[in-house]
Automatic annotation (TrEMBL):
<feature type="domain" description="Protein kinase">
    <location>
        <begin position="210"/>
        <end position="570"/>
    </location>
</feature>
<dbReference type="GO" id="GO:0004672">
    <property type="term" value="F:protein kinase activity"/>
</dbReference>
<feature type="compositionally biased region" description="Polar residues">
    <location>
        <begin position="41"/>
        <end position="59"/>
    </location>
</feature>
<dbReference type="InterPro" id="IPR000719">
    <property type="entry name" value="Prot_kinase_dom"/>
</dbReference>
<protein>
    <recommendedName>
        <fullName>Protein kinase domain-containing protein</fullName>
    </recommendedName>
</protein>
<feature type="region of interest" description="Disordered">
    <location>
        <begin position="19"/>
        <end position="63"/>
    </location>
</feature>
<dbReference type="InterPro" id="IPR011009">
    <property type="entry name" value="Kinase-like_dom_sf"/>
</dbReference>
<dbReference type="GO" id="GO:0005524">
    <property type="term" value="F:ATP binding"/>
</dbReference>
Length: 617
């Protein structure tokens, strides 16, 4: 199956369980797609090289730094926007199914899904897009275009409405967006909402003092600050789902300092709106970690890069201990939680003695990828997604939206609960906006703690197997790696062990108790040769022989089983509550979860195993 916009519903979502073979994918609009939980808030710290000029000129008029995970949003700015305050104006292109077939083959836009960020500017689609942007902006006249662009509201868009062989035939328009600025709360409003916490607020910084260097990620701009010594900083902002930005700001200010937790913001950044003149909080400034993420360090290990120094056992244990300790700090000492652990959200920081420490980032609390999420949370997230859609007939049964809603309302203990509660303006939700995680917070038996232990167990697997990806289940992570067409030789995924010491293996098994992979759940679908194929065909070296419908069928079967488990789990918990305090024991999922150790116990075991191995902490 070719990668297209349809994969988000036909493959990567529990909605795939209810897709019909003859049902065409709905036509996409040119407007930005809705966000999908994954890595939209992650601080990507790689420093991609500037692409070579896309035109024959020696001074390119546009620069492109990367693309979003959906292949439709590109981080490209005109040259005059560099070293100017970041307006967060991104470029949007049509979905893949609106490309002419010949251009799909020649421009390979689907490669943006699985290409590492530093390499995206050199892709054919990126270079073609740069040519179109340069042709279009030149046609408007340099000074005139610069005035129009620079006067746009924060978070506006450049929309490319068609893709053509000749870049000059591609229609491009500026699309002002006033809603983002209007939704920004004032600094005084945030301080008033959070007044009871007595937070240590950093200085306010005018947005105009920032100078864009490059756009590393949807949420992350690399910047200089006027009047400083040229130090690079991270400016974090969001142009959709802004509530998570302000929730993270509150978390960063409220949490006590910890050496392995990203420090409190250096500045809160405010900007005056184009319409109305109200000054709102548009983001905040954090330190920049130039060594990059743990994920990229591990990927270079698994790819056997000759120039990459091998991670030592001391580093494995030290980073494992540091992450476990910061989890204890967040959960036990600060009464908060962290739902999105994975190597992407850990960066490395050099110490004065030459060693490297792990630093945890991204406190948006929006949730994580399914492959990292404990089943007692993931199953509820599945039903949240289904409750937001009109679920029709599946292969073997009918699951109605009303039944899913009834179960979730009973599970959350809220008869008024509705899915996908979205508001343009931030409101002060204590604990964030993830209903499945907040439900665990309010439960008994340390389930909140043990759910986070599950993610920590998978991180331990990545560390000690030297793998940047867990490679299990079906979710957005599978789009980050093309496994090729040569079969499974050399590819490892959780819970297979090759390098992990026996003592750590035992700890990982305990931490990930209840993981479906221990019961034999396979990956279902993988990315091979630029196409999504059933994992069985890939293992047999027959990835090129399967049809798109066979891939959809495999995903449909995989998700049908997952949805069945989710309905059963939530139903068991709801029924168990009716039976009294001990009624939740009817759920095997919860029994397995409660067999996991607590965070403090995991930390103690890592320290014991590391000391036995002679680790220098």
């Amino acid at each position: 199956m070719e990668i297209s916009t349809a994969v988000f519903t036909d493959i990567l979502s529990p909605l795939a369980a209810f897709s019909r073979p003859s049902q065409p994918a709905p036509e996409d609009k040119v407007l930005p797609p809705p966000p999908v939980p994954a890595n939209s808030g992650h601080i990507t710290t790689q420093s991609p090289p500037r692409p070579s000029p896309a035109t024959t000129g020696t001074s390119p008029k546009w620069h492109l730094d990367g693309a979003d995970f959906d292949g439709r949003r590109f981080f490209a700015v005109p040259a005059f926007a560099l070293d100017a305050p970041p307006l967060r104006i991104d470029v949007y292109v049509p979905p893949l199914d609106q490309y002419p077939p010949t251009l799909l083959a020649s421009l390979r836009p689907q490669a943006t899904f699985y290409t590492l960020p530093p390499c995206i500017p050199s892709l054919p689609i990126a270079r073609h897009l740069l040519r179109a942007l340069e042709t279009w902006s030149a046609s408007l006249g340099g000074p005139r275009f610069e005035r129009q662009y620079s006067s746009l509201p924060f978070g506006s868009q450049v929309l490319v409405t068609n893709v053509a062989p000749d870049p000059s035939d591609m229609r491009v328009v500026l699309s002002p967006n006033y809603d983002i600025e209007q939704a920004m709360p004032t600094l005084a409003a945030l301080q008033g909402m959070w007044a009871s916490r007595n937070l240590p607020w950093p200085p306010e910084l005018d947005w105009a003092a920032l100078r864009l260097v490059r756009q590393l990620h949807e949420a992350i701009s690399l910047v200089h600050i006027d009047g400083t010594d040229g130090t690079l900083y991270v400016f974090k902002s969001l142009t959709r789902d802004q509530r998570y930005l302000y929730n993270e700001l509150k978390m960063l200010l409220a949490l006590p300092a910890h050496p392995n937790l990203v420090p409190r913001p250096l500045y809160v950044v405010t900007r005056r709106a184009r319409f109305g003149g109200r000054r709102g909080v548009c983001g905040f400034v954090l330190p920049y970690y130039a060594l990059g993420s743990l994920k990229h360090r591990l990927l270079r290990q698994s790819e056997s890069c000759a120039s990459e120094r091998r991670i030592t056992p001391s580093e494995q244990f030290r980073w494992a201990r540091q992450v476990a300790d910061v989890f204890v700090h967040i959960t036990t000492r600060a009464g908060a939680f962290y739902p999105d652990l994975k190597p992407d959200n850990i960066v490395l920081c050099a110490r004065e003695d030459g060693k490297m420490d792990a630093v945890l980032l991204d406190l948006e609390q929006r949730g994580g990828w399914f492959s990292w999420t404990p089943p007692e949370v993931a199953y509820v997230e599945y039903l949240e997604i289904l409750a937001g859609e009109l679920v029709a007939e599946g292969e073997n049964e009918v699951v109605r939206e009303e039944e899913v809603l009834r179960l979730l309302r009973a599970y959350f203990g809220d008869e008024e609960w509705t899915p996908g509660s979205q508001r343009d303006r931030y409101w002060n939700s204590e604990g964030g906006f993830s209903a499945p995680w907040l439900a665990l917070r309010d439960s008994t038996g340390g389930r909140w703690d043990r759910a986070q232990v599950f993610m920590l167990g998978k991180l331990l697997w990545c560390l000690f197997e030297r793998q940047g990806l867990v490679r299990c289940g079906i979710d957005h992570e599978m789009l980050q790696e093309d496994l090729g067409v040569g079969g499974a030789e050399g590819v490892i995924g959780f819970p297979e062990f090759r390098e992990t010491p026996e003592g750590v293996r035992s700890l990982i098994r305990k931490c990930t108790a209840g993981a479906p992979e221990w019961e034999g759940r396979g990956r279902g679908v993988v990315l091979s040769g630029g196409k999504l194929v059933p994992v069985c065909a890939w293992l047999e070296g027959k990835a090129g022989d399967v049809t798109a419908e066979e891939t959809r069928d495999e995903a449909r079967r995989w998700w049908a089983k997952e949805v069945e488990k989710a309905m059963k789990f939530v139903g068991e918990v709801v029924e168990g509550r009716r039976q009294g305090p001990d009624g939740t024991e009817v759920s095997e999922v919860l029994r397995q979860a409660e067999a996991r150790p607590r965070l403090v116990d995991v930390l103690a075991e890592i320290e014991r195993l590391g000391s036995e191995a002679g680790v220098e902490w």
